[in-house]
Write a structure and sequence with these properties.
Layout (H helix, E strand, L loop, with lengths): L20 E2 L8 H14 L7 H14 L3 E5 L2 H11 L5 E5 L5 H7 L4 E5 L10 H7 L4 E7 L8 H10 L3 E5 L7 E2 L2 E2 L6 E5 L12 E5 L2 H10 L21 H12 L1 H19 L5 E3 L13 E5 L1 H4 L3 H10 L2 E2 L1 E2 L11 H4 L8 H7 L2 E4 L7 H16 L1 H12 L4
Parallel strand pairs: 1-13, 3-4, 3-5, 5-6, 6-9
Antiparallel strand pairs: 2-10, 7-8, 9-10, 11-12, 12-15, 14-15
Helix pairs in contact: 1-8, 2-8, 3-4, 9-14
Length: about 400
């Protein structure tokens, strides 16, 4: 246990952890069950092209979410791109900047302009009033992001979309297994997109899914993910290759069998972090609605420099030196990345909440790779850093200006 800042690894002490603790280290289900599925796959000699494991995964996901249609794909970025095209979005589409850049890229890649909109400072999701202000005659849709698994203001965004005849879809990459007003995420808007990347609490190695209650839209998406084929030698639509492989589906089916265990671990970790970080000045852990289903896969902090005595970036430096690989999410915001930075050089003037949060938010390791003792140690590091925030800030500031 470290009692003074001289013992921090940043200032010459030994790291608290011998190996790096990463945000988003993969959860693994029962290895034997996975390998059994892989052996069955090899016995069938059916590796891709809508095999039985993909079909089973789609059916189980649709049943769990209570949606009519689930189409699994090779990754969530391709899923976003296909959903955007299937919905016929054109011109301008309103999106948050406080999200992973794939949300914006899925539009820009298809020559659709992502119009960055500010977020609610409390929910970190699209501010409906700001959305209204961003609508122009060229606007064709809205893409909301259920950030950290916490749902957007679905009702307000739905009302806006309907009143302006806009398409509404949701990037639900963080929200698999979460609910809103008792209904599972996946049932809102025209379509919702999930990510099953290895860093997500439920993964298929690489993968994603589009879910929708529109049979017509689902049929179009199924054509588009497989080059537009409707049977052998019969192409009836422009499409691409977005298919999920059988081995990825095997991982997904295996992970589903352990899903409740993964979520239970996440909830345990969240409770432990809540206890360890309680009453640390300037450190706020985001809250989840305990009346809804939530995957709790993100441990997200806001750092108030004025109260903590050091800023988010300095705290991240302290943690990295201890081999706690905290992440700045979502820094610096899509509007400050290329090509958007060049396209919209003054976007920050319209995004004050996004700008503020991009400087304050960080995420800590959780999942099955982290135990309660790890969390206690991380909490002690943060508490020590904040208790000496002014001194740490002074030392790091001098180092960066070359004064020492």
């Amino acid at each position: 246990m470290k009692d003074c800042i001289e013992e921090l690894a940043l200032f010459g002490g030994s790291p608290s952890f011998p190996e790096k603790l990463h945000v988003g280290r993969p959860n693994l289900g029962d290895r034997e069950r996975f390998l059994a599925r892989v052996n069955e796959m090899f016995d069938r000699n059916w590796l891709t092209n809508n095999g039985p494991l993909v079909q089973e995964l789609e059916q189980k996901l649709a049943g769990m979410l209570g949606v009519r249609n689930c189409i699994v794909l090779c990754n969530a970025t391709v899923a976003l791109e296909i959903a955007v095209r299937a919905l016929g979005l054109t011109g301008e589409v309103i999106v948050p900047s406080f999200t992973f850049v794939a949300t914006a890229h899925s539009l820009q890649w298809q020559e659709i302009t992502p119009v960055f909109c500010d977020i609610d400072p409390d929910t970190h999701t699209l501010d409906p009033q700001a959305v209204r202000r961003m609508i122009t005659p060229r606007t064709s849709g809205i893409v909301g992001v259920h950030l950290w698994g916490r749902p957007c203001n679905v009702e307000a965004l739905t009302e806006i979309a309907e009143s302006h005849n806009l398409k509404l879809m949701f990037d639900a990459a963080h929200a698999f297994g979460c609910s809103h007003n008792g209904k599972m995420i996946g049932n809102f808007g025209n379509a919702e997109v999930f990510s099953f990347h290895a860093t997500k609490f439920f993964n298929t190695f690489e993968g994603g899914a589009i879910v929708t209650n529109s049979d017509e839209l689902a049929a179009k998406i199924r054509l588009m993910k497989n080059f537009g084929f409707a049977g052998y030698d019969n192409v009836i639509y422009v499409g691409t290759n977005g298919k999920m492989t059988e081995i990825c589906a095997a991982m997904g089916l295996t992970g589903l069998e352990s899903l409740d265990d993964f979520i239970a671990v996440n909830h345990r970790n969240y409770r432990r972090y809540s206890a360890e970080l309680a009453d640390i000045p300037g450190v706020s852990l985001i809250k989840y609605n305990d009346k809804e289903r939530c995957n709790c896969q993100y441990i997200v902090l806001e750092i108030d420099e004025g109260k903590a005595g050091l800023n988010r970036d300095y705290l991240v430096e302290v943690l990295h030196a201890e081999n706690v690989m905290a992440r700045r999410y979502f820094y610096p915001g899509c509007h400050r990345m290329e090509p958007y930075r060049s396209y919209f050089p003054h976007a920050e003037l319209l995004l004050p909440n996004t700008e503020r949060l991009a400087q304050r938010v960080m995420s800590l390791p959780t999942g099955t790779a982290v135990d309660e003792e790890d969390i206690k140690a991380i909490g002690r590091i943060i508490r020590l850093a904040v208790s000496h925030g002014g001194e740490i800030t002074g030392r790091l500031a001098k180092t960066k200006t070359g004064l020492i």
